[in-house]
Each structure stands twice: as structure tokens, then as C-alpha cells.
Amino acid sequence: xxxxxxxxxxxxxxxxxxxxxxxxxxxxxxxxxxxxxxxxxxxxxxxxxxxxxxxxxxxxxxxxxxxxxxxxxxxxxxxxxxxxxxxxxxxxxxxxxxxxxxxxxxxxxxxxxxxxxxxxxxxxxxxxxxxxxxxxxxxxxxxxxxxxxxxxxxxxxxxxxxxxxxxxxxxxxxxxxxxxxxxxxxxxxxxxxxxxxxxxxxxxxxxxxxxxxxxxxxxxxxxxxxxxxxxxxxxxxxxxxxxxxxxxxxxxxxxxxxxxxxxxxxxxxxxxxxxxxxxxxxxxxxxxxxxxxxxxxxxxxxxxxxxxxxxxxxxxxxxxxxxxxxxxxxxxxxxxxxxxxxxxxxxxxxxx
Length: 352
Prior knowledge:
Layout: H1 10-30, E1 41-48, E2 60-63, E3 78-82, H2 92-101, E4 108-111, H3 112-117, H4 122-131, E5 134-138, H5 145-149, H6 151-155, E6 161-163, H7 170-178, E7 180-183, E8 190-197, H8 202-219, E9 227-233, E10 240-244, H9 263-351
Parallel strand pairs: 3-4, 3-5, 5-6
Antiparallel strand pairs: 1-8, 1-9, 2-7, 9-10
Helix pairs in contact: 1-8
């Protein structure tokens, strides 16, 4: 085990399992008794630091020491989708004969052609999804199944596990898939893996959780360097932390706005805010004063302009009046001169 894996110790896993079992016991006393007992599952939540660059629809198989579905011991309902196209060379009768001869625990065999015709309605797909614990499919038809099965299989994490039916070891492949936890690495950073059942013993659950953690760390790109956290939970319980990666030293952890780290910081922030407000008020008042001065100056300029304009108009009027007076005076003088000249001429004529 690597140094990073040593952070997930069996003691912390055991404490988390004990806490979840105690919580379930306390909840069972408050709930009404049910006719059929349901075996509840334990889930391991994996959080990654980076999204996988190559997401895949098919799950990764994580081996578990104690399988969740044991076909040899528990009566599990398993379904197999086969490729009945002419090129495949496989029929439903041949597949069912092989299953019976090798004592493979497959409850039902569904042909691809029947899946296209009989299971087109949504209700038929939902019933098919709820009728079986696990699904297997021929490796050659895996790309066709997402469109034929619909969203219900993906929501309940019952995507068929690919099986290579060209090989003769069908039983080995199916038992290996039943003894493994399915890790779906899609387009997000969070994945959920089924790792145990309440019907198991505490020791078995702890061993399964530790094996799942180590197996996931080997499958994930960059291994432990890309894992942010591991949490363990039941369906309705809180998620209990098992592992948390230390943040990188390059990242600075800053206090949130409105939540100061100490009372000194709070006082400093308040003082800085008060100073900023005072500066804003002073600048606002200065702006207002400047505006008033400009307005006064503008009004003064207007008043001066109006006064000077009035003076100019009065001067023009006086000039016009004086010019008229001068003209009339010139006319009067010219008329007097003409009369005087005429009198002189008359006198000279009389004298002659």
C-alpha cells in the first residue's frame, strides 16, 4: 500500500461502519414493520480532483473479497442479452442449452430483436429494469443498448456488463462480474460504488470497503494524486468521511467576504470602511462646491455679458441720434448760406 493509501486506515473504516449500523438500528425502531425484509446496501462515494479525459459507458470492475451477488449461494435474478443477428452465429436455443449444461445462474435470455420490438414502451423498459438484480450483454451489442434500454437503466446503475460470448468461459466471466463492484467514471468528478450489504457481518463490510478503496485508487487516472475524498453512507444516511486529500500548497485559502477571521480584522475592516465613507462624502461635497462655483461664474458671465450688451445698445442709440442732429444742423447751415449768397447777388445787381 502506498503512503497515500495509508491514510485510509481500517480503524476509521470500522468506526464509520459501526456508526452507520447503529444509526440504522435506531431508525428501524421508529419505522413500521414490513412484510418483506429488504437488504439495504452500503455506498462508497468517490470524489476526484479532475474530470476523466476519456469517459466511458462501460463500468470498471473492482474485485471484492465478499461478493454482493453470489449466484452459487443466493438466488439472484440475472438477465443476459444476446446478439441474434445472422453474422453472430448464436441463437437463443443454443445459448439456453449452454446455460443449462454448465449450470450458469442466468434467469432469462433476451434476444436483440425482441429487445427492439417488445420493450419499446417506457413501461416495459421500467418493468424489465426492476425485475432483475444484474444484467449481462454480448460484447458486440453494447454500443446499441443505451438507445434501446433508455434512461431507467442508467439512473439505477443497472447498465449491462459486457461478456465475450465467443469464448467458452461464460460461467467464469459472469461469476467474476458478480464478485466485483462496478465503478462508473463518466463526465463528472463524483462516482458511487456499491460495496456491501447490511446482511453481511461487520468484518466483511470493512474488508469490502478497504478492497474497494485500494482497487479504485489503482483504476483512477493518476491514482491517489487524482482522488479528493472517500465517503461511506447508506441510502438515507449522512455520508461519513473516510479520506480527504490535503489541498495543494499553491492554492491560497482566503476568508469569505463578510466572515472575518479574527476580531482585529473586523475592527480594521470597519475602520477602513468608515475612512472610505468619509473620503467619499468629502469628495462629493467638493464636487458640489465646484459645481456651484461654476454656476456662479457662469451667471456672472451672463450678467456681465447682458450689461455690456445693454451699454453697447445705448451707445449705438446715442451715436445714431447725434448723427441725425449733425445732419440736420448741416442742412440748416447750408440753407442759411444759400440765402445769404442770394441776398448779396441781389444787392450787387441793384447797385449796378
